[in-house]
Amino acid sequence: MTEIFGIPIQAFLGQLMLGLVNGAFYAMLSLGLAVIFGLLDIVNFAHGALYMVGAFAAWIMLEKWGVNYWWALLLAPLIVGALGVVIERAFLKRLYGLDPLYGLLLTFGIALILEGIFRDQYGVSGQSYPVPDALAGATNLGFMVLPNYRAWVVLASIAVCLGTWFLIERTRLGAYLRAGTENAKLVQAFGVNVPMMVMLTYGAGAALAALAGVLAAPVIQVTPLMGSNLIIVVFAVVVIGGMGSILGSIVTGLALGIIEGFTRVFYPEASNVVVFVIMAIVLMIRPAGLFGKEA
After folding, report:
1. Lowest CB count within 10 Å: 20, 88, 102, 164, which one?
2. Nearest to 171 by CA among 183, 163, 159
3. Domain range summary for the chain, segments of one domain joined by +
4. What is the pLDDT of residues 204-226, one digit of tens each?
5. Residue 219 has what DSSP assignment?
6. At the topology level of CATH, where does 3-123+142-285 sit?
7. How far apart are CA 214 and CA 57, in angstroms?
């Protein structure tokens, strides 16, 4: 049997695939955080709760109304995006221009409220969400058996991340968004509705979190704690990539997922802390993050 560093290749590649799946979720969630912080200067601690709400929205639609997975991929992000718009209009718009700490505290409170509502209704035990029939089973690649759904998660996440990066960095709409956050009055003088753009930006970030939640639902148990268990790691990913850097969040999320997978093979005890060790090293060498701009 072929081995890599003394590890059977099947086990090695299996952990690599698991790392890619985790990295895909890290990339999508950190992408939403980076969009909101980079364009609105809000540290959105409610992001993990919105991820959880997206997963629960898909599960509730399936259990109560028979809405299948493919419709849930469309409807859950729209629902949670609308919730994000309400949060931005009702609360966050009052904090623009203030210290980001106020936004962090407010969104942390919103996260606790959302988590408490779902814990009260569904408890902390996980709810199962079935893998869609079209993606059931696995494909034998010869050197490993690849679950079809996990391959779909990786491909879909990369496509969404790259599409978001292209929209913000390479289109006129993205240029308006970046200009509106730098000098809102000047952009408004050209007839651009900056408050509307800001509102939709937060809604889009919430929708990205919900989309990640729907993708995660068949992989892990849907539980009110799923967001809080993940958000600290995602914040570390954003810090390593550079606060507000879209490309940094994508690359760092995928890379750290793979590194975490390798760590489980060679030193399992360190797999839960390797991300934070890397964050500490990066901050000592480059405080702005790998892709961030120095002040």
Report:
1. 102
2. 163
3. 3-123+142-285
4. 999 999 999 999 999 988 999 99
5. T
6. ABC transporter involved in vitamin B12 uptake, BtuC (1.10.3470)
7. 8
